[in-house]
Design brief:
The complex is a heterodimer of chains A (96) and B (190). Chain A is built from four helices and three strands. Chain A is α+β, with helices and mostly antiparallel strands. Chain A has a single domain, classed as Arc Repressor Mutant, subunit A. In chain B, 76% of the residues lie in helices and 1% in strands. Classes of the chains: A alpha+beta (96), B mainly alpha (190). Chains A and B meet through helix 1, strand 1, helix 2 and helix 4 of A and helix 1 and strand 1 of B.
Chain lengths: 96, 190
């Protein structure tokens, strides 16, 4: 089962991050941390993996002298998410 | 949220659904703003009515001078919320455009009122409140705001055919159905 699912998205935290970014235009690191309930360390690692795969863009800047990390989904990430959801639906149809 | 294996399609879909659902908070579904504008406008309209048609005061419209102050409170509140929202959404931008446009149109109507007369602008105010609430209700899928907006537009049309005294009463009703009632029916702010 799940053989055809994108392994990069078949991780709860990465899938959660990509789902959130599909619904918004961009989100700050702290927002993703709050919504997913993950630790900063784990979230950083998973964001790096998504970035390396070209699924998301990460922008680092400063606001009020504090570092600010903003994430945004790319077209490649959007396509991967859509394929992932289509594959999931395929499995569900198969079961039914 | 550390698990990576042994979860099924239903769990994946549930996770996707819950994450997307969690992004739905918008400052425009924040009850405070509707309460602020709703109750202040209702109070001003009621005071205006009492001063003009019960007491017979010569300058009853002075009650509306509080509105610039309310606008300042509104902008401070929005700025604070936007700075702490940590996320940018498409509906958020759309809502900002609709309410910003309504605000500019109201300022324009206030300026124009000195030329065309106040009895022409109150119905337009009701219609503008209605358009903003109807659009927000449609975008946020809030049926109370949609219905309130629709009724406010309808009352605006009716108000064109009424004298100013009744327009004020209708304005109070429009504010109750488009702002106050939907705000009471919204979920409390988190």
């Amino acid at each position: 089962m799940f053989k055809n699912l994108d392994p990069l998205l078949h991780s709860q935290l990465r899938l959660a991050v990509v789902s959130l970014l599909m619904a918004v235009e961009e989100a700050e690191f702290i927002y993703l941390k709050e919504k997913t309930g993950s630790t900063s360390g784990n979230l950083s690692v998973q964001i790096s993996k998504l970035k390396e795969a070209g699924y998301i863009e990460v922008e680092k800047s400063f606001r009020d002298n504090f570092p600010l990390t903003t994430c945004k989904i790319t077209n490649k990430g959007r396509k991967a998410f859509e394929d992932y959801v289509n594959a999931l639906e395929g499995y569900i149809r198969q079961k039914e | 949220m550390e698990k990576t294996k042994n979860w099924d399609e239903a769990e994946s879909l549930q996770l996707i659904r819950s994450m997307i659902e969690s992004t739905k908070y918008q400052v425009y579904s924040d009850r405070f703003l509707y309460f602020l504008w709703g109750y202040v406008t209702l109070a001003c309209a009621a005071l205006h009515y009492i001063l003009a048609f019960v007491i017979g005061y010569e300058h009853p419209y002075i009650v509306w001078l509080i509105m610039p102050l309310i606008s300042v409170v509104h902008f401070i509140y929005i700025k604070k919320k936007v700075n702490s929202s940590k996320v940018a959404t498409f509906p958020g931008r759309v809502m900002q455009g609709i309410w910003g446009g309504m605000f500019m149109a109201i300022i324009g109507m206030v300026i124009g009122a000195f030329h065309v007369g106040w009895e022409f602008v109150y119905p337009v105010f009701m219609m503008l409140y209605g358009v903003a609430c109807f659009s927000t209700g449609s975008a946020l899928q809030n049926k109370y705001l949609s219905w309130g907006g629709f009724l406010s537009i309808l009352m605006g049309v009716v108000a064109f055919f009424l004298i100013f005294q009744y327009q004020l009463l209708l304005l109070m009703l429009a504010i109750i159905v488009s702002y106050i009632a939907p705000a009471h029916l919204m979920k409390p702010n988190k």
